[in-house]
Amino acid sequence: MVGRARPIAPHRAAKIHRAGARTRTGDRMNARTLKALRGSIKKWELIVLGRKEDTGTNNCPLCAEFYFPVDQRGICGGCPVKEATGKSGCVGSPYTEWTLAVWEEPEELAGERAYDNPGYPQIVCGPRTMAAAIAEHDFLVSLLPEGK
Fold first, then answer.
1. How far is it, in rounded angstroms, from Cα 19 to Cα 81?
2. Model confidence over 76-129: pLDDT tens digits?
3. Residue 74 domain-assigned?
4. How would DSSP label each residue in the chain?
């Protein structure tokens, strides 16, 4: 069993969204971004509780706001996750471990391939996916501006 996903260095996440709610680029976190971040936190809270599944960009409030593959800002431009990791597509966040765990853990638990399609549904099915879901939730919470 793999332990809890390794989140981004806390000092880096905290530095990005300190008092004043400024992002790495110095911009203030606007109300739309804050609403999307809170929505994503709620999504992961429900995934941890077993009340929701992850369908990637299809049910991510941050992706709904920032995932614009053809936008001039580039993929994920302005997203607090990209601001924290410096990478698009949640790479470098605990979501990376989640995507691995949700594909591998059902097979590990059942002793056989559980899914023919590594896509969806993506749900908590054991300790590894639970740890990854909690890590993603906690990471997103760490991006909230102080006092928010």
1. 18
2. 989 999 999 999 999 999 999 999 998 888 777 766 555 555 555 688 888 999
3. yes
4. ---S--PPPHHHHHHHT-TTTB-TTSPBPPHHHHHHHHHHHHHHHHHHTTS--B-GGGG-HHHHHH--TTSTT-TTTT-HHHHHHS-STTTTSTHHHHHHHHHHHHHHHHTS---SSSSS-B---SHHHHHHHHHHHHHHHHTSPTT-
The total domain count for the chain is: 1
pLDDT one-digit tens code per residue, 4-15:
333 434 443 333
In a domain, 19, yes or no: yes
Tokens 């054991």 appear where?
126
In a domain, 4, yes or no: no
Residue found under tokens 């990005």: 16
**pLDDT score of 77:** 87
Phi and psi at residue 110, to the nearest 5°: -90, -20
Residue 64's domain comprises 10-142
Q: Is residue 1 assigned to a domain?
A: no
